[in-house]
Structure formats: C-alpha cells, structure tokens
Amino acid sequence: MRIDIITVQPGLLESPFSHSILKRAQAKGLLEIHVHNLRDFSTFKHQQVDDYQFGGGAGMVMMMEPVVRAIEHLQAQVSYDEIIYLTPDGETLNQPMANQLSLKGNLLLLCGHYKGIDERIREHFITREISIGDFVLSGGELAAAVLVDAIGRLIPGVLNDETSALFDSFQDNLLAPPVYTRPEEYRGWKVPDVLLSGDHRKIEEWRHEQSLERTRQRRPDLLGNPKK
Ligand code: ADE
C-alpha cells in the first residue's frame, strides 16, 4: 500500500512513521509513505495556501488552487482508492474502518488547517472524511499519523504471530483482557492462578470472561447497551 499525505506542516510528520511496526512495514516493502508540502503547489506570492473566507468571519480557509494542483499532480502518478480528508466533522475512526482501509490499494490523505478547506474540494475530490474523535486538533497531521498507524499495522503481512492484531481490543467488539508478565509475585501482588495453570482451555475461558466484564464496565455501548 502507498499512502500520500498532503500537509502544510510536513515537519510534524517527519518521524512518526520511522519507528517500530510502521518502520518494519516499510522495510518489508508492504507500505510506502510520502509526505508532500502543500506550499510546493502554490503559485501565489510567499507560497500562500489560505485566504479569508467569503461572507466574513474569523479564520482562514485553505484555497482550492494549491490543493487541487497537489491532488492532480499525485493522481497523474498514482491511482488512489480513497482521497481522505482528516476533519473533526468526519465519521469517527474505529477498528472496523481501520480493518477495511488496510485492505485498500493506495490512499491519499489531506490534512486540514485553519478553518478547513474550501467546501468545493470536499464536494469534488474527497471520497471519505475521517475524524479521530470528538475534539479539535490544531491540524489534521496528528490525526493522519493516528490513521496511518491504525491502518499500517493491519496491512496483511505486517504483524507476525506475536504481535497479531487478532486479539486486540475492538477486534471482536470487545476490549482486550488484562495481561501479566514476570515476576509471578511483586510486593505481594500476584498474577491470577489460572494464567499459571497451563490449562489453555481454562485460560481462554478466563480471558473471554475478563474481556466481557471489562467491556460491560467500560464500554457497554460496544455490547449494544448505551453508555451510562
Ligand atoms: N483536525 C482537527 N481535529 C481533528 C480530529 N479530531 N480528527 C481529524 N482531523 C482533525
């Protein structure tokens, strides 16, 4: 999969993809990430990319022209399955969406800034709008990094058995059960006996019960019950 990201803050995206699992995904040739500076596509003085909004009001709007030039420049080289705009008023990212996007070919991400992008870009170019939660960030870059991380680790072949996503929280609409490692006892705090029993059927049952209980307590909405 190839992911291109268009941003006015390329510096913010310099390092999040050079570590751990995403680094390995790129080294294995399963993922390619390219960050593009929107200002490079501006034909205006001082590489301007934003302007005052029609109708008045505080805050600048990202202009059509540089964004369209950037998108069309990339589209001439790469065919994209989705052109995604990161915005707080998009659909909220969740695990099923990440699973679905991880199976796509190439993605183009557009990071919003200021008051956002001219609505006509959304109407004519954007195929999907994604928010990472009900809060407002200063720009779409960190949201793009979150999205790329959530998708990248799910690309087939990226995770091995040890890091498998099968048992992640949300994979079956349940939160993950608690986990423990050595020592068996620390300051009198013990690891649950069942995990030391060697009885794999019992261990699986215990984990499932813990997952259910944790989900009931913390995220009843995942079980179809409204959150209190
Ligand atoms: N840009 C600003 N806030 C955002 C959010 N919560 N999700 C995605 N993009 C954003």
Explain what the structure shows.
With 228 residues, this protein is an alpha/beta fold. The chain has two domains: 2-153, Alpha/beta knot; 169-222, Trp Operon Repressor, Chain A, CATH 1.10.1270. The protein is 30% helix and 18% strand. It has a five-stranded parallel sheet with strand order 2-1-6-5-7. Helix 3 crosses helix 5. The chain is elongated and about 70 Å long. Adenine binds next to strand 5.
Short description:
Residues 1-224 form the tRNA methyltransferase TRMD/TRM10-type domain. This protein is 30% helix and 18% strand.
Topology, element by element:
Elements: E1 2-7, H1 20-27, E2 32-37, E3 50-52, E4 60-62, H2 64-75, E5 82-92, H3 95-102, E6 107-111, H4 119-124, E7 128-131, H5 141-152, E8 185-186, E9 189-190, H6 193-196, H7 200-218
Parallel strand pairs: 1-2, 1-6, 5-6, 5-7
Antiparallel strand pairs: 3-4, 8-9
Helix pairs in contact: 3-5
The structure holds adenine.
GO biological process, one term: tRNA N1-guanine methylation
Keywords: Cytoplasm, Methyltransferase, S-adenosyl-L-methionine, Transferase, tRNA processing
Protein name: tRNA (guanine-N(1)-)-methyltransferase
Characteristic key phrases:
single chain; 228 residues; alpha/beta; Alpha/beta knot; Trp Operon Repressor, Chain A; 2 domains; five-stranded parallel sheet; two-stranded antiparallel ribbon; 7 helices; 9 strands; 30% helix; 18% strand; elongated; binds adenine
